[in-house]
């Protein structure tokens, strides 16, 4: 990427500008999942390192399947003690539920109770992610998941607006899968915009997962294998700016063009806001969208997005 193509002004790592408003707490680390597929200890060590690194304000939650909470607890306990002069960091977890949600919720409650009584650095499950095939299943599962847990429902695109409406009625959140290890796992731009529009209309916060390793829509390999096929991948700046603009009233047709934008020269960040072509969004509008609407995305890599952002001079 050309390091000169984004026009941006940054003054410090406190993320006080528009780029900072867009990026804060944006990336949930999912190193346990493909294509990285790390073992637990390396993934835990990575997250611990990222939480103490320069760009830790961009780091969100650690994503883990509920069946591996015990494994996580062991790895967490094995982390080195903080060096003198530093403080321990409490971890925020997002847990993927399995088919037995009642047992999974009980396991989460037990885990949180143990960690709360550990007397040292702890980890807490803040939210859960679960697949639901229908509006009826959204309602059933929402009744099982405690209200204090943020619950993200990954619903089938073919469900129309019924599932999103059910998520809204339950006061829950939605989740969209934006990629995978093969080309067919990447939804069409029209489908992504349709999902975001439905969430905006129903006042449903959402997160994304998979395929958003790079800031801008562009061609990349689908996995880290040298022989991996390549294809067009959605960009996380495209997705989260499109969501922010839609939240502020942008027309669907324009938001689709923004999602498909591949030229970094079309974006201009500064202290007060961001411009995409002739359209403008203030830093406060971006921050509001991120806070209550476009929440985060899961990525099996934290360094890859950060490296790209630095290349674009957004960091």
In words, what does this structure look like?
The chain is an alpha/beta fold and 315 residues long. It has one domain: TIM Barrel (Alpha-Beta Barrel). Helices cover 36% and strands 20% of the residues. The strands form 3 sheets. The protein has an 8-stranded parallel barrel, surrounded by 7 helices.
List strands and helices in order, with pairings.
Layout: H1 18-23, E1 27-29, H2 40-51, E2 59-65, H3 69-77, E3 91-96, H4 101-116, E4 123-131, H5 135-144, E5 150-154, H6 162-169, E6 173-177, H7 189-202, E7 206-209, E8 218-221, E9 230-233, H8 236-247, H9 252-259, E10 267-269, E11 273-276, E12 279-282, H10 283-292, E13 294-299, H11 303-311
Parallel strand pairs: 1-2, 1-13, 2-3, 3-4, 4-5, 5-6, 6-7, 7-13
Antiparallel strand pairs: 8-9, 10-11, 11-12
Helix pairs in contact: 5-6, 7-8, 7-9, 8-9, 8-10
Protein traits:
alpha/beta, three-stranded antiparallel sheet, single chain, TIM Barrel, 315 residues
Strand order of the largest sheet: 1-2-3-4-5-6-7-13
CATH superfamily: Aldolase class I
Low-confidence blocks of residues: 1-5, 7-15
Quaternary state of the chains = single chain
- How many E strands? 13
Structural category is alpha/beta
Main beta-sheet strand count, sense and barrel state: 8 strands, parallel, barrel
> Number of helical runs?
11
Nearest-integer average pLDDT: 91
Separation, N- and C-terminal Cα atoms:
14 Å
Domains (count): 1
**CATH architecture heading:** Alpha-Beta Barrel
- Which percent range describes the beta-strand content? 15-25%
What's the shape? Answer: globular
- What is the percent of helical residues? 25-40%
């Amino acid at each position: 990427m050309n390091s000169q193509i984004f026009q941006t002004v940054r003054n410090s790592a406190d993320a006080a500008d528009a780029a900072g408003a867009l990026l804060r707490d944006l990336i949930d680390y999912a190193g346990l999942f493909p294509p990285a597929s790390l073992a637990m200890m390396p993934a835990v060590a990575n997250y611990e390192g990222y939480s103490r690194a320069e760009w830790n304000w961009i780091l969100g939650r650690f994503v883990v399947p509920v069946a591996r909470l015990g494994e996580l607890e062991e790895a967490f306990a094995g982390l080195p003690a903080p060096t003198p002069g530093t403080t321990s960091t409490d971890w925020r977890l997002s847990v993927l539920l399995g088919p037995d949600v009642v047992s999974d919720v009980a396991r989460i409650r037990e885990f949180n109770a143990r960690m709360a009584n550990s007397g040292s650095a702890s980890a807490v499950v803040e939210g859960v992610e679960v697949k639901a095939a229908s509006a009826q299943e959204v309602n059933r599962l929402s009744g099982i998941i405690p209200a204090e847990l943020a619950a993200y429902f990954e619903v089938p695109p073919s469900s129309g607006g019924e599932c999103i409406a059910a998520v809204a009625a339950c006061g829950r959140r939605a989740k969209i899968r934006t990629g995978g290890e093969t080309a067919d796992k990447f939804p069409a731009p029209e489908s992504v915009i349709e999902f975001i529009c439905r969430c905006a209309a129903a006042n449903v916060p959402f997160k994304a997962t998979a395929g958003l390793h790079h800031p801008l829509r562009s061609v990349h390999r689908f996995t880290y294998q040298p022989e991996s096929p390549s294809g067009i991948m959605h960009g996380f700046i495209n997705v989260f700016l499109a969501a922010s603009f839609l939240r502020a009233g942008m027309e669907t047709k324009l938001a689709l063009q923004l999602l498909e934008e591949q030229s970094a020269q079309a974006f201009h960040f500064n202290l007060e806001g961001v411009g995409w072509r002739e359209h403008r969004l203030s830093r406060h509008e971006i921050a509001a969208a991120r806070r209550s609407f476009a929440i985060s995305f899961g990525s099996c890599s934290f360094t890859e997005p950060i490296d790209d952002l630095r290349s674009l001079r957004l960091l």
